[in-house]
Amino acid sequence: MRTTAQHIEDTPSKTAVVSKALLRSAELLGLTARELSTVVGLSEPSISRLKRSEGSGGPLTGKSYELALLFIRLYRSLDAIVGGDDSVARQWMRTDNTMLGGKPLNRIKTIDGLAHVLAYLDARRAPI
């Protein structure tokens, strides 16, 4: 039987889980390190360090952590809408959308734009 200390050591931190999900979401949507760094407010070298550490936490704190959570939500909503077809999701991110006022990839580079795209996807995912 495991002791509590052993269990805690084996449990990944929230930051590590979010980091790994962020990197995987960005990869599946075809975002470059530069594009991802703009979305979550980190430098490109910080994204590279995050990748090298295989999502074990690292530079995701405060605002960048919260933006990462929003980006992961965006990915999950879009994934549900396109039925898990990552090529369609990648194409959607890079195609002009009149409802969003531009390409979603360009819109999510600001906090307001990220929130707007996420609200749009949430509304499309669960219409009333």
Automatic annotation (TrEMBL):
Descriptive protein name: Transcriptional regulator with XRE-family HTH domain
All copies of domain Antitoxin Xre-like helix-turn-helix, residue ranges: 11-73
Gene Ontology MF terms: DNA binding
Chain ranges of the Antitoxin Xre/MbcA/ParS-like toxin-binding domain: 77-125
